[in-house]
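Need the bound structure for histidyl-adenosine monophosphate, inputs here:
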Amino acid sequence: MIRKVKGTRDILPPDSRLWAGVEAEALRIFSSFGYDEIRLPVLEPTDLFVRSVGEGTDIVSKEMYTFSDPKGRSLTLRPEGTAGVARAYIENGLGQRPQPLRLAYMGPMFRYEKMQRGRYRQFSQIGIELLGSSTPEADVEVILALHTFLAVLGFDDLVIVLNNLGDPEDRQRYIALLKKELAPHRERLCGDCQRRWDENPLRILDCKVPSCREIVEDTTPVAEAASAESRAHVDAVELELADLGITVRRAPRLVRGLDYYLRTVFEVISPELGENTVLCGGGRYDRLIADLGGPQVPGIGFAIGEDRLIEVLPAAARDRFLGERAVVLLPVAEGAAAVALGLARDLALAGIRAEVEVTGRSLRAGLKWAAKLGARAVVILGEDELAAGEAALRHMDAGEQERVPLERLREALVP
Ligand code: HAM
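Answer from helper R.:
Posting the output first, comments after.
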């Protein structure tokens, strides 16, 4: 037997309905805030991620699915969506459109990560990006859209953590300070952190190894190195969110695993998943598009981990997306199958979910099958019924049965 690639998943029915429901809701809410969907390639030039996410990040240094195409070009299965959005912005001259530009996206991302609960090698993100505004209000809007979407899904226990990474100049100063503070403990850092020391010292702050965490606890938080201007920006974001009834928790040590961020960064944590399995991450990236050779256009956005979101989806949304239980159409007389199929069409056009028995089961076997499917009703088309232009309608939960004229069936089946 050929098995799926480790870290990938088959999303089977009925779970696939949850995915479709979440995605439709995301598009609905985000488009209400003005975010239209952009659909981008899964395959991008490797260089795009090296130059945006950053060479020293875990993602680029060890998690990318990179390969050469037959012409020897280095390609990578996208590990995230922001870099592709930035590339598309530049390549399609999206700066010519009215600014700011609001874009939403969703789809599979790939990272060669160690497998654990909520962590996959192919996973899906749902994200939005707001390009062309550097005001705190842009940050507030993006977080408001996120909060609104999560609230519509029924989440009420999520925590938004917020930090200020400062501007790149602040970061340079901070990295020098951090190295000075860590230097006496350098030997005690784990192997990964030894490597991070030169490549990406900020990542040491994010190390999960307990001995590294202990050492890091005594260092100056990154937020304290932020310039006055950057502080004013992030403080304004926090205040304006509070005015909208959205409280955030400051996390002065939060750093994110991608190099393009500055100033505002945030994550959404679910008590159910725990702090190590973040539901959503985002932040501001005012230099990314320019760094990729485009115009000086600021941006902010986030991406939700859809796999994780669905794992903790509140029951009400779950029920809503799973949708109505099917009606089974059970033809058990000569010529009844055609009647059943015609009815299925009428019901489909009326938006009523109905499944026809097409394998030739008997009445008894057909009822058993319908019960296994969890059908809410069975429409039995037997000889007597058809002769009278009727069907026997069996309500499965109540265990009751009635005769209904065929032309009234649709009415009788509206849930
Ligand atoms: P990120 O924090 O790397 O940010 O990923 C965002 C979310 O994707 C995470 O919070 C998590 O829920 C989900 N995720 C990441 N890796 C995995 C995995 N291996 N398995 C399951 N879920 C995962 C970004 O990707 C940025 N592009 C977000 C952004 C958009 N920033 C600005 N705009």
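Comments: The chain has a mean pLDDT of 96. The pocket of histidyl-adenosine monophosphate is lined by residues 80-82, 111, 113, 118-120, 123, 125, 127, 129, 257-258, 278-283, 301-303, 305, 307-308 (CB under 6 Å).
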